[in-house]
Specification:
The protein is of the alpha/beta class. It has 2 domains: 114 residues, P-loop containing nucleotide triphosphate hydrolases (Rossmann fold, 3-Layer(aba) Sandwich); 60 residues, no CATH class. The chain is built from 9 helices and 5 strands. The protein has a 5-stranded parallel β-sheet with strand order 2-3-1-4-5, with helices on both faces. The protein is globular. The N and C termini lie close together (10 Å). 25% of the residues are buried. The model has no long low-confidence stretch (mean pLDDT 94).
Length: 202
Amino acid sequence: MKVLGITGGVGAGKSTVLEYLRERYHVRVILADEVGRLLQQPGQECYEQILRAFGPGILEEKAGEIDRQKLSAIVFADSHQLSRLNAIVHPAVKAYIIEEIDKERQQRAVPFVVIEAALLFEDHYDQICDEIWYIHTETEVRMRRLAKSRGYTEEKSCRIMKNQMSEEQYREKCNLVIDNSSEFVENTYEQIDEGLIRHGFL
């Protein structure tokens, strides 16, 4: 059973691709961000470690859960603190995903597994993926979509994009490029269908 990694810059439409793969091919889609949130819940692996590292001031008053806004305010103001958080969360997320892939291989209930992670290459998910596909979308289209879906200003979108991998880096590292720039989503679906067949996922 193969593992497919999906990556791309902010506003590229990765969620559109993932939803299509899930609905059309009934694959298991694992989102690293969702796993990270799960592991920070009370009783989960990262909760106590984060609490020890950052103190009880990061908790919500009533529920005892980690207040993501409070934690974000700390780590995004201090790169050292962000590194501390990442050192706790990222290895745990990766270990959880590897375990889930192993479960899917044993159960043989899905044709393949799809992973989406913001830091797919930085956290070396390429070591556990058979292939990684890059979702490319023209910058102007991404700006427009981010303004509409998230209310981002052009300045904010540009700032986020500047901190992500470049177009050249994505293309160099990935096995296939899916162009999601078209307003007709069927064009994207057709590229996915062809890619899955041509690259042996089906």
